[in-house]
Fold this sequence. Notes:
The complex is a heterodimer.
Chain A: H1 3-10, E1 13-17, H2 24-37, E2 41-46, H3 51-56, E3 69-70, E4 81-86, H4 89-100, H5 104-111, H6 114-121, H7 126-141, E5 146-150, H8 154-172, H9 174-180, H10 192-205, H11 207-220, H12 224-238, E6 243-249, H13 253-268, E7 273-281, H14 299-328, E8 333-337, H15 345-355
Helix pairs in contact in A: 2-15, 4-5, 4-7, 5-11, 7-8, 7-12, 8-12, 8-13, 9-10, 10-11, 13-14
Chain B: H1 9-12, E1 16-20, H2 27-40, E2 44-49, H3 56-59, E3 70-74, E4 84-89, H4 92-102, H5 107-116, H6 118-124, H7 128-142, E5 148-152, H8 159-172, H9 177-190, E6 195-201, H10 205-221, E7 225-226, E8 229-234, H11 245-251, H12 258-288, E9 293-297, H13 306-316
Parallel strand pairs in B: 1-5, 1-6, 2-4, 2-5, 6-7, 6-8, 8-9
Antiparallel strand pairs in B: 3-4
Helix pairs in contact in B: 2-13, 4-7, 5-6, 7-8, 7-9, 8-9
Amino acid sequence: MTSLESVLRDASLLVTCGPGGVGKTTTAAALALAAAETGRRVIVVTVDPARRLADTLGIVDSAGADDPCEVIGATGNPDGSLWAQMLDAESTFDRMITDRAPDQQRAQSILSNPIYRSIAGSLAGAQEYMAIERLHQLSTGGDYDLIVIDTPPSRHAIDLLGAPDRLVTFFSHPVYRVLTVPGRSLARVTNAGSAAFLWAIRRLAGPKVVEDAIEFFRALSGMEAGLRQRASETAAILRDERTAFVLVSSPRAEAIDEAAHLAGALRDGGYPLQAMVINLVNPTPLPLGVELPDLAAGPLADQVELHRELSALAADEAKEMLALRALAHELPLIEVPLLDDVQDLVGLAGLSQYLLER
Amino acid sequence: MALPRSAPDWLSRTRVLVVVGKGGVGTSTVAASLALLAANAGADVLLVAVDGKPGLGPLLGGASLGPTEQTLRTMTPRGGRAGRIRGRTISPEQAFGDYLELKGFGSLLRRAARAASFDLIAGSTPGMKHLLVLGKIKELDRERAADLIIVDVPPAGHAAPFLRSASALQAAAASGPVRDQADEVSALLADHTRCQCVMVTLPEETPVNEVIELAADLEDDLGMALAPLVVNACWPDRPGLSMTAATAARRQQITLPAATRRALDEVVRFSLVRVDGQREQFARLDDALPLPRLLLPRLPVARLLPQHLDVLAAALAAEPVVGRVSR
C-alpha cells in the first residue's frame, strides 16, 4: 500500500495546503475521489474552485453552494460517496451566529450590524476563520468518514491554522471585556488601555464606528464561551493523529520556497504533515541521441530548439525539487506530471492514479 | 515629472502602476520587469512590494527588500538622465505610524494607539490594514517620491479586497480621518491620469476566467483605468512545429535516426496541445476582455535570475497587441 493510500484509509481529516497556482484544489478533489473509491463517505470543502471543477463537483454559484451536494456517479463503489461544498465565508459566519445566538432577535441584531457585515464579507482573514469554523461543523456532525479541506494559498494557510488560537486571544483581551460589559458607559471605562483604544478608534474612524463596534461586541457577548470552546476544539482537531496535512507545490522556485517555509511552519505548529506533492512537473524529453550543431533556420531547427528548451526546463525543475526532497526526509514526496485536463471526473481519476503512485 | 519619451506610451501616462494577478501567475516578476523597463528609459522608479516579497530586490540586482527604501539599481545613462530603481516594502504597522505622524496626531494618540495594540485597532476596523498601505502609497505619490511608483499587490483572492478597502471603509465610517483617508485613496485609484492597473494572467482557462472577473471588479466597481493586459508565460508558436520531425528534417535535407525523430515528435506534440489551448484562451479574451495585450515568453527555467528580467522587460516594451473587440 502506498503512502497516500494509507492516509486516505486512516485519516478522518485531510488538509491540503501550499502556494497559489499549483493545483491545490484539484489535488484535494482527486484525493477525495480516491478515498470515496475505497468505500468511504467523503466530503471535499473547497475555497475557490475554478469554474469547470466546480461544475464537475456540482457546486453551483455561492447562493446554493452552502449545503453539501453529492457528486453523482463519482464512484463505482456502492459503499463510497463523494460530497462537495464550496466555502462561502459570509454564509458560514451567518450560520455560526444563528446557531449560537441565544435568540432570533439577538441573531438579527448581529447580522444587520455594519461592523459585522464588513467583517463577515470583506475582512481579509474572515475566510480563513470560516474554513476552520466549517471544519468544526463537519467534523462534529459525523456524517462523513473523511473531510478533505482545501485551504487558501500558503501565507494565508498559516493564518487559517492560527485562527482558533487568535479568537481565543481576542476574547481574552481587556478591551474585549470592556466592550462587552453590559450597561457600562464608555465614559466610565477606566482601564487605561481600553480607554485609549476606544479614544483612538473614535478619533481615527469616527464615533459611528465605535458605536457599531460596541454594539457588535455586546451582541456577541453571550456567545463568547461557546465560541471559545469551539475554537479550542478545532485547534485540537487540527493536531489530531487522524488528521493529515498534504503540502502541494509546483517545481517552480517561488512555489518551492514558499512550500519549504510552510513545511517548517507546520512542523513548528505541531500539525501532522504526512505527504508532499509536487504538481505540474514538466516531462523530461527523450534524448535526441545525435548532435545537431549549426542547424540553419528552418522547421527542424524550430523543433530542436523546443527540445533543447524543454530539456533545460526539466533539468532546472529537478534541481529546484531537490530542496523540497531534502526537507521531506522520511515523508513521502510524490511527483505529478503536468496533465492536460483534470477538471472533469475522468481527469480527477487520472490525477488520483498519479497521487497514489499506481 | 512624466516619464521620458522612450518608455512605451501607455506607461508614460501614469504615476502609479498597480500590478495585480492571482497567485502563481508571476505578478511580482511582471512588476519588477516593468520597473526595469521604465528605469531603462531614464525614469526614477519606486517599486513597492505590499506583501513584502523580499526576493524582488535580489532579482533586480540589489539586496532583499525591507521597510526602508533602498536603491536597487542605477542604470547607465543613455543620452538623457540615468534611471534608477528603488525598492521597499510597506507593512500596515509602519504605514500606521507614518500616518499618525503625518497627520500631526500628538504623542498622546500615538501612545494610545500603541497601548491598545495595533492589531486590535486594525482588526476591529475592517479593511483598515489595507487602507493604511494604500494611504501610504497615496502619500508617496503626493510627495512625488518617484516618476513612477509600481505597486506589487498581494496575490490570490486578496487583490480585490485590498483595492476595495477604501470604498468599503467609506461605507462604514461616515466621518473622521479614516473617512478622509478612504476618500483620498478612492480618488487616487479612480484618477486615470495618476493611477493605472496592470493585470497579469496566464494563457490558461482558470487564470483567464479570473482576470475577466477581476477586470469587471476594478473597472466597474472602483473606476480604475486598465493598462494593457500582460499574458505571462506564453508558449512560442514556431512555424516548424506544424509538421512531423521526418518532414522537418527532409525540408532541411537532414536524415535523422528513428529515436531522434521520436524524441522530437514527442516534444512537438506536447507543445502543440499547449499552443492550441493558448489560442483558445486568446479567443476568449478577445470576446470578454477587449484590452490590448502584452505577451511575455515562457522562459525555460524554474528559477528566475536577474538576466531573465531583461528578456521580460524587452517584451513589455513592445507595442501591445490589440485583440478583436466585440463586447
